Structures are given as structure tokens and as C-alpha cells.
Amino acid sequence: MNSNLTVYNSLKGEKEVFQPILPGHVGMYVCGPTVYSNVHLGNCRTFISFDLIYRYLTHLGYKVRYVRNITDAGHLENDADEGEDRIAKKARLESIEPMEVVQRYTVDFRDTMAKFNALPPSIEPTATGHIVEQIELIKEILDQGYAYEVNGSVYFDVIKFNKDTLYGKLSGRRIEDLIHNTRALEGQSDKKNPQDFALWKKAEPVHIMRWPSPWSDGFPGWHLECTAMSRKYLGNQFDIHGGGMDLKFPHHECEIAQAESIDKTPPVNYWLHANMLTLNGKKMAKSTGNNILPGEMFSGENTLFSRSFSPMVVRFFFLQAHYRSIVDLSEAALEASGKGYQRLVEALDNLDTIDFSKTTTGFDLLQWKERCYEAMNDDFNSPLLIAHLFDAVKFINAVVNEKSSINKEDLENLKQSLNVFFYDVLGLKKPETKNQTKNQSTLEGTLSLLLELRNKARLTKDFETSDLIREELLKLNVQINDTAEGSSFKIN
Ligand code: AMP
Ligand code: ZN
Fold first, then answer.
1. Residues 288 and 198 placed together within one structural domain of the fold
2. Ligand 1 pocket check: which of 46, 109, 326 to mutate, most ligand atoms within 8 Å of Cβ?
3. 463 CA to middle of ligand 1, Å?
4. Domain harbouring 285, CATH code
5. What burial class does residue 193 get, using C-beta atoms within 10 Å of its C-beta: 0-12 exposed, 13-18 middle, 19+ buried?
6. Would you say residue 1 has pLDDT above 60?
7. How confident is the model at residue 36 (pLDDT cuts 50, 70, 90)?
8. Triad 296, 283, 184: Cα angle to 5°
9. For residue 30, which atom of ligand 1 is closest to its CA?
10. Which of 163, 193, 196, 223 has the maximal Cβ count within 10 Å?
11. Burial annotation 132-151 (CB, 10 A radius, 16+ → b, else e)
12. CA 373 to chain centre
């Protein structure tokens, strides 16, 4: 186990040596998406940042329990305590069930993350699957005297919590400034103070996502789900909590208040926050329309860029910046990343064709490897790691051009290390080879032809042939689906 890892703890505002609570084990919670629309590239950047962190911790030998939730209830418009639930609103606009909205965008999220080669978390719990736990948590906070009920809703008493402990530790906001800056909004008159936040909201008659509770038929406040699920799966105190910078306040600040009001100790040892992806210098966001979807990027069907970029080039582009730096998305920067990624891939291919010599000249492998680990151990500095990988690329090219040489042992070591950093740590993949793409299109063409022959057989009522095609294809894991619109195949 490598004990030299330092991480930047947002709570302390400085880097600290990473020491997990249970040696060899890491509990990590990352706030997941609110599944009311497709994730945009900004969301993806944050999840890829934590994928890098998860991968590196795992590579170091830690047994990581990585929990990333799905927010499928309670997140109201404008992150506020009043207004419509984002998922219910989408369901209303499209005349479908809220759970259809949730299903559609959860599937989209998982597909997108898989395209980016992001590993799935160990547990992916949903807010609606943990209503009971959230109700129990509210009871505990009420018992401790840090919450109050008004007209069927329950609110967290921020002023009382601030007196006894301190509210604003993570975001550095002082309660005095918050009091000064928050106006009591219309409809918030139930709260004792405008800074208080909802733990449970009584549902208006039109609110369709509702559950029974001791206080009313209603729904949990957005901040509560993460406290309930992190406690359930990682315990009252765990190692890492992550999310985008914009979640520091109020979301994470409220999570700290909820947990500390019960336990009187900080719930999280290291708070890690990933910085924002911007477009035209402004934060990429769903609400402003200043965003681009991953699908639009991969297909090239967008008005922003003149060509498409593959998931691996986009991932590489993200990793070329430190997770705590702001990144602006531009075609020129993506082009440059595409070239860099290609150079790296070519060097990996060249490594397989290189002949070894008696001696290594022009490269100190041990020192190079150390520098790579130093980079990652310094708060997951992937851009520095990538710069070191390019030093290796230069050396490989020099060996190819017979300007340097490498001995057998170094060649094996270099291959092994480059593979570890490229595939395991950075989570990159080589592009599909021309042969793979060709094979794929041959397979799809053949299957389409078989479908056509089967359709002809069905038209002439030759069911023996049509059934034979279907059954034989099924044995090869190809499933045919017949619908009113026609037939299609799926390779399982
Ligand atoms: P949401 O679905 O809006 O709750 O966001 C999911 C995650 O994406 C959160 O961790 C946000 O902090 C993060 N996020 C939102 N916008 C951006 C952005 N422009 N760049 C990077 N991360 C973002
Ligand atoms: Zn959260």
C-alpha cells in the first residue's frame, strides 16, 4: 500500500496525507445526478474526475466501497425548498410517470458513463429507495432538538445548530452574512428563519411524488438523501465525500449539519470537490442552455463544433487538466487532445514492435516511474502524469529511430507501467481498430440480410424457415424483436 498519497481537503483548504479510517479500506461517497434530463458534458467531467480517483485508490491496493447515488426525488427547481420537483415537472410536461423519467435518464447516464469507460460504483442507491431511512433520520434530528415541525413539514434549525456547533465550515460562509443576504421568500413563511432548510415537505395536492410519514404525506428534502445513504452504506464517519464545487453550498454544508446534529462529530474526513467545465467561459449548466450533450459531441451533430470527438478523446482532454482546475471546452483544445491521445496510442503500439538491446540509453526508467507516482500521489495530478507519459513517448520514438536503446528488462517494465497508467489509472482505451469496425459492419450487414430473408419467408407463410432463422440466431445470442413497425435484432 502506498502511504504517500496527499489529497486536497476542501474542509481544511489544504493538502493532507491520506489516511483511511480502516487501514486498506476506503469509503467514498459521490453525489450522483438528478435524473430528470440527459447528463451534459459538465456533469460527465465531475464523474470522470471521481472515476480517476476511484481507479487510482484501487490501483494503490485499497479496497474501495464507492457509493454514488441517483437523485430521483426531492430535488426541487432552483435547488430551493419551494417549487416543483424536477422529475415530477418533466413527467407532467411529457404526460408520463415520474418513474419513466427516472428510468430513461438513469439508463442514459449509465450508458454515457460506460462510453467514457468510467467504472460503475460499488453501490448506486436511489433516494426513492431510501424513504424509510430518511424518515428515521428526521426523527433522530428532531430528537436532538435541531429540527421543528410546522404544518406537516419539518425544517432544520440552522440558527440553533450554528450556536451549538458552527454552520458554514465547508463553504466558509458565515451565518451572519447569510442572514443578511437571504430574503424571506413568499411561501417560506413556515420556516422560523429563511436559512433553515427542509428535511420533509408536506406535498401540495398536485405534487404526485409523495410518501406517508409521521408528519404528512410528503417528500424528503434534497440534502437528506445523501446523509441517509452515506450513513447506511459507509457508516457515520467515512473517508471521502465528493461532488462538483457547486455542491459545496448549500448541499454539502447541509449534509454536514444533518450528520453533526446527531453524532456531534464530522461525518467525513476528506471533502473532495471537482471544478467546473465551462463553455464560452461560462459554467456549463442545464438551466441556462449553455451546455453540450455527450451524444452531440460523439456524433458531431451540434452547432458548436465542426466535427465529432470520440469519448476517449474527450476523456483524455478532461484528464489533461487537474480535477480542481476550471476547464473551458473548445474545438482547438479538443483537437490538440486528440493529437496527444493519438501519439500516446501510437507509442503503445510501437512498444510491441521494438527490439531490445543490451543496454538502455537516454532514459532512467526507475526515476521516470517514481515521477509518475509522485504526480498521482500529489492530489491525483493527472496532467503531470500525462506530461511524464509523453517523456516516455519521446523515448520510445527515439528507440524506434535508433537514437536510443532499451534493454530487455526495461522494455518489459516500461510496457507494464505504461499499460497500468494508460488503461488502469487514466481509464483510457485504444480506439477501435479498422479491422474491428470492419468486422462489426460485416456482422450487422449479415444479420440485416437474414432479417430480410426471414421477413420474406413470413410473407409467403413459410413459417418453418422464419422460425428456423429466429431459433438458430437465438442460439448465437442474437435476439429478434417483432413489432408493428417491423423487426429488429439485438446481440445479447
Ligand atoms: P446535478 O445532476 O445537477 O445534480 O449534477 C451532477 C453533478 O455534476 C454534480 O456533482 C455537479 O456538481 C456536477 N456539475 C454540474 N455542472 C457542472 C459543470 N459545468 N462542470 C462540472 N461539473 C458539473
Ligand atoms: Zn448529495
1. no
2. 46
3. 53
4. 1.10.730
5. middle
6. no
7. very high
8. 125
9. 10
10. 223
11. ebbbebbeebbebebbbbee
12. 24
- Could you identify the atom of ligand 1 that is nearest to the CA of residue 39? 2
SS3 48: helix
Q: Locate the DSSP E strands across 275-407.
A: 277-279, 282-283, 327-329
Ligand 1: residue of 36, 41, 43, 226 to mutate (most ligand atoms within 8 A of CB) is 43
Tally the C-alpha atoms within 13 A of residue 447's C-alpha that lie toward its C-beta.
21
pLDDT tens, 169-190? 999 998 877 776 655 554 556 8
Domain span holding position 285: 278-425
- Does residue 260 share a domain with residue 142? yes
Same domain flag for 144 and 25: yes
Q: 272 near 16, Cβ under 8 Å?
A: no
Per-residue pLDDT tens digits for 419-429: 999 999 999 99
The candidate with the shortest Cα–Cα distance to 258, out of 298, 199, 172, is 199
Query: The pTM is what?
Result: 0.88
Neighbours of ion ligand 2 (CB under 5 A): 31, 226
Residue type, 283: K
Q: Would you state the cell numbers that stand for residue 337, as one nine-digit string? A: 487532445
Cβ atoms of 226 and 17 within 8 Å: the answer is: no
Three cell numbers written together for 34:
438528478
Q: Which atom of ligand 1 is nearest to the CA of 75?
A: 4
